[in-house]
Structure formats: structure tokens, C-alpha cells
TrEMBL record:
It comes from Acetomicrobium hydrogeniformans. Residues 54-201 form the Cell envelope-related transcriptional attenuator domain. Belongs to the LytR/CpsA/Psr (LCP) family. InterPro entries: LytR/CpsA/Psr_C, LytR/CpsA/Psr_CW_biosynth, LytR_CpsA_psr. Residues 318-402 form the LytR/CpsA/Psr regulator C-terminal domain. This is LCP family protein. Pfam families: LytR_C, LytR_cpsA_psr. It comes from the Bacteria.
Length: 414
């Protein structure tokens, strides 16, 4: 995100007319962890909801003054945490409950690490910052299309190399309506940050950075003074690009009491934050590959060879089908395919909302065996098959990953 530029921009440019301060001077003027020599910054991108803002993007950024390295940890918005005074909830709810102060307290408790400064950005300031830099060039792996008339959001970005202005870049980093949901969006945000830093390295932009950094910082809300941020930029200006590492909180998706969460692996995250940066770019990618970041990663591949018709014959209870994606006629389409397997449909309807990232199953406790067989039939993880006291039927909630699941079901009927 462009927020990172405010603290990292100088890492790629020569700030002519400025002198790089010594590390001792930085430590004297800025808060930091005296044991590790690190400055931790909570960077928050918030939405523009009329009544209250939610933390749409949360980045825990660590600047290592002694080793001149930077790590950016993306926290998925659905991460399950304990919010002080509120109990267990999604981390992005902390901001509307108590602003940046409560979000910082929540993160400090969750990670067990101090936060020295914060930076906030919203949907109105983000495009301004990107446009100040002249836009960015990003390769879009596949077409991104989504329409939300109620939210006045229209996204249609073609596949291929795109030069994005601020408005298009905002849509790119907001898009999360594919099978990977918020995890896919985080990957695009990290792709954007890397592209933005490459843009800053361009000579035409780098010569303007002292002035641009001041304008960027003025577009943000932060308790980090402008002059101190410039001092950080000057200090990190000669840092090589491989000394910056982006990664995502390791973990897995889960449905608890009908609510979708990301269950973070704190021990693994802390190990990654404390590990030295080797200078190899692929390290962040390997860290992501080892985590459960997509429905495909959660599927037990051995189940692919199971006779699906035989599984379906053992599902003798009625099954309810709920549309949690929002695509028109989706519940009917799923129900029709399940009926072709001989499964009796209890009813079809819409879920409570249309923002379920992953297809899941809820079951009353007396139908545990059938729920596991239904999960095998759909090819979803056991972590997404959960007991619920609020349902009397075996219930499928269709998520944004429905295309691969529907294709799997239909292939078993050929």
C-alpha cells in the first residue's frame, strides 16, 4: 500500500540536499525497542463507511535500525483475536469499537510486541498518494471484475500489464472477490507495494522525493512527526531492495458458530519476524506456501480418488443450501447438482450475507458422520465443517470459491 511509502520511500532514492543521520541520532529522537533496536509501526488502511470506519488493511511494519532491514506483516482482516473489553472478534472490528488506540492495544496483546507509531490512510487519501507518484505499472494475472451497486463499487481491471492511476490502484488493492478472498487481496497489496517501490526508484520520481514525501505524509494521519519520518527515509535510503520482506500472518480459515475467521499461527509469525532477512526474494513466497492460504491447500488430495457417488449414497439426511456468495441462482444450481447425486434438499435460500470467502458446512451434532461425507463430496477441508446448535439440517453455505467446487461435483456425474 502507498502508506508504506511514507516510511520506506527514502530506502530507494537519494534525497539530495539531506544528510543521512547516524543510528544513534535516530534512536535518540524516535521511540524504539531498546533490546532489539527496532521501530514497530501499525499501518492501517480504513474504509469510508458512513457511520464508522473499519480497518480494511492492517500492516505490522518493523524497521530494524541496527541491520537496516524492514519487514511488513499483513494481518488478514478476519483474524480472530481478543479485543480488550470486547472479547473474541475479528481484528478489523477493533477500529470502529475504539479507533487506532484500541486496534494498537489489540495488536500488542496478540503479537506480544510493542507498537511505537501508527499511520492511517483512507480511501480518499490513497488515490492522491498514487497520483502524486505518477501512477504505477502492475501486471494483473487475471481479469478482476466485481460490481456492488449498493456500495457504489465498480471494479473491472483487464488482465495484463496495466498502468494504474490512483483510482484504479485503489480498486486493485480492494478486490477480494475470488476464491482466495482476503488472502488473495493481501497478495495483490504486496504486489502493489513492490511495484510502488520500484516506481520510487525511477530517476524521474526519485529527484522529487524530498518534496513528494512531505506531501504524502500530509495526506496521512499519524503520530510520527513529518521531520522524523524524513529522518527515517534518509537513514534507509541506501538499503538494497532485498532487505525488505513482505509476508502474511500464517494460519488457516475456519468457521466458528457460523462466522468466518482467519486463525493465525502466532508462534510461526513471531519466528518469521525475528528471523534474519537472507536477501533472497523468494523467502517471503516460501513462507506463504507453507501456510494454509487457499481452499486448494486445504483439500486432502487423497480424497480426489474416492467414488463420489458412493459417498453421496451414504448421505441420507436432508441438506439445506445457502447462497453466501451472492451470484444469482447459485443455491438453485448447487441444489440441482446435489439432487442428481440423489441427495434430498431441505430448502434453498440466501445466507446472512454474501461475503463468505470459503464454502463451509454446518451440522447438528447428531449428523457428524454425514457432514464429514458431505465435506468429502465437496472436497473441502475438515476445518470448514463445523457443528452448530443453530441449525437442524445439514447446511452448505456457498462461498466465493464455488466455481472449483461446482466443477468438481459436475465432473463426478460425467
Amino acid at each position: 500500500m502507498a502508506m508504506v511509502v511514507a516510511t520506506l520511500g527514502g530506502a530507494y532514492v537519494r534525497l539530495d540536499g539531506y544528510f543521512a543521520p547516524k543510528v544513534e541520532s535516530i534512536k535518540e529522537s524516535l521511540q524504539h525497542d531498546e533490546k532489539t533496536g527496532k521501530i514497530n509501526i501499525c499501518i492501517v488502511g480504513k474504509d469510508n463507511t458512513e457511520d464508522s470506519h473499519r480497518a480494511d488493511t492492517i500492516l505490522f511494519t518493523t524497521l530494524d535500525l541496527d541491520n537496516k532491514t524492514i519487514q511488513v506483516l499483513s494481518i488478514p482482516r478476519d483474524t480472530r483475536v481478543q479485543i480488550p473489553g470486547r472479547g473474541w472478534d475479528k481484528i478489523n472490528h477493533a477500529y470502529p469499537y475504539g479507533g487506532i488506540e484500541l486496534l494498537n492495544r489489540t495488536l500488542i496483546n496478540y503479537l506480544g510486541m510493542p507498537i511505537h507509531y501508527y499511520i492511517e490512510l483512507d480511501y480518499s487519501s490513497f488515490p492522491k498518494i498514487v497520483d502524486l507518484l505518477g501512477g504505477v505499472d502492475i501486471y494483473v494475472e487475471k481479469r478482476l471484475k466485481y460490481v456492488d451497486k449498493a456500495g457504489d463499487l465498480y471494479i473491472d481491471i483487464p488482465q495484463g500489464l496495466q498502468h494504474m492511476n490512483g483510482e484504479t490502484a485503489l480498486k486493485f488493492v480492494r478486490f477480494r472477490h475470488d476464491a482466495l478472498g482476503d488472502i488473495g487481496r493481501i497478495k495483490r497489496q504486496q504486489q502493489f507495494m513492490k511495484a510502488l517501490l520500484q516506481k520510487i526508484a525511477d530517476q524521474a520520481v526519485s529527484t522529487k522525493m524530498p518534496t513528494l514525501l512531505k506531501e504524502i505524509l500530509q495526506a496521512l494521519q499519524s503520530d510520527l512527526p513529518v521531520e522524523e519520518a524524513l529522518k527515517l527515509a534518509m537513514y534507509f535510503r541506501d538499503m538494497p531492495p532485498q532487505n525488505i520482506r513482505f509476508f502474511t500472518l500464517p494460519g488457516k480459515p475456519a468457521v466458528l458458530s457460523g462466522v468466518s475467521y482467519w486463525l493465525g499461527d502466532i508462534n510461526r509469525a513471531l519466528a518469521m519476524l525475528s528471523a534474519p532477512i537472507s536477501g533472497e526474494e523468494q523467502e517471503e513466497g516460501n513462507a506463504m506456501k507453507d501456510t494454509a492460504t487457499s481452499p486448494e491447500r486445504l483439500i486432502d488430495k487423497g480424497k480426489e480418488q474416492i467414488d463420489r457417488s458412493m459417498i453421496a449414497r451414504n448421505i441420507t439426511c436432508r441438506v439445506a443450501v445457502l447462497n453466501g456468495d451472492g451470484s444469482a441462482g447459485l443455491a438453485n444450481k448447487f441444489a440441482d447438482v446435489l439432487q442428481r447425486y440423489g441427495i434430498d434438499i431441505a430448502y434453498k435460500s440466501n445466507a446472512r450475507h454474501f461475503d463468505y470467502h470459503y464454502t463451509s458446512i454446518l451440522y447438528p451434532r447428531n449428523l457428524e458422520n454425514e457432514s464429514k461425507m458431505l465435506g468429502q463430496l465437496l472436497g473441502i477441508s475438515d476445518a470448514l465443517v463445523k457443528p452448530s446448535d443453530s441449525t437442524t439440517n445439514l447446511t452448505i453455505i456457498i462461498g466465493h470459491d464455488y466455481k472449483s467446487i461446482l466443477a468438481r461435483l459436475e465432473s463426478g456425474l460425467r
